[in-house]
Amino acid sequence: MGLIVHPPEFIRRFFQNYTWKLPPQTPDKKILYLTFDDGPIPEMTIGTLDMLAQYNAKATFFCVGDNVRKYPDLYKRILIEGHRTGNHTFNHLKGTKTKVKDYIENVEKADKYIQSDLFRPPHGMLKKRQTKILVQTRHIILWDVLTKDYDKRISPQKCWQNVEENVSPGAIIVFHDNIKAMANQRYALKKTLETYSQQGYQFLGIPHFS
To answer: Which pTM does this prediction carry?
Structure first.
């Protein structure tokens, strides 16, 4: 089945420790939260940052610690340009296939390179015990809209459609900063920035909670 583009309400209620969407501060507040997983890598992140800058858009980058270690200057650029960052583990581990102790140690290893109280689990999956430990010190951010830009079986147009059909004020939208997502991400991100800028939306980074 794969991951769900727009998780239904019953799933969100069941996993109340996770943040799926940020409610607008006022009914007319038009804000969207773009997020990018897996970077930073030069092949993708530079182009992503350049496109965001064209629209004066801020975003949140959920970074893999080992990529930050390899490309510290690119990580610094993310911060200098006013974007937020979050922890995405050190080695992009899937929680459900990793021992609890090993997983937590991997997240903490990434903390040495990524100073943030925001965390997104790779593949959006955690064991119950992993969640219980992680929520003590950080906020677990999932999504309101998953673009599925990483899926080479879908077209760039379908990737954009996933956004267009599901977005609403306060939505947390997931794109990816990895090479396999490039064609879909570049197309759908540009359409998202163009379309919602014209509709008066702001693009902001997810606020740190502490």
So the answer is: 0.96
- Which string of DSSP letters, residue by residue, matches the chain? ----SS--HHHHHHTTTEE-B---SSTT--EEEEEEES---HHHHHHHHHHHHHTT--EEEEE-HHHHHH-HHHHHHHHHTT-EEEE--SS---GGGS-HHHHHHHHHHHHTT---SEE--GGG---HHHHHHHTTTSEEE--SEE--TT-TTS-HHHHHHHHHTT--TTBEEEEE-SGGGHHHHHHHHHHHHHHHHHTT-EE-PPPP--
Tens of pLDDT, residues 87-139: 999 999 999 999 999 999 999 999 999 999 999 999 999 999 999 999 999 99
Catalytic residue among 37, 38, 144, 149: 37
**37 in active site:** yes
Which residue out of 88, 176, 177, 208 is catalytically annotated? Answer: 176
Helix axes 182-198, 42-54, angle to 10 degrees: 10
* pLDDT tens figures, 33-58: 999 999 999 999 999 999 999 999 99
Annotation marks residue 176 as catalytic: yes
Q: Which residue is it, tokens 């019953």?
A: 10
Answer for the pair 120, 35: CB distance below 8 angstroms, yes or no: yes
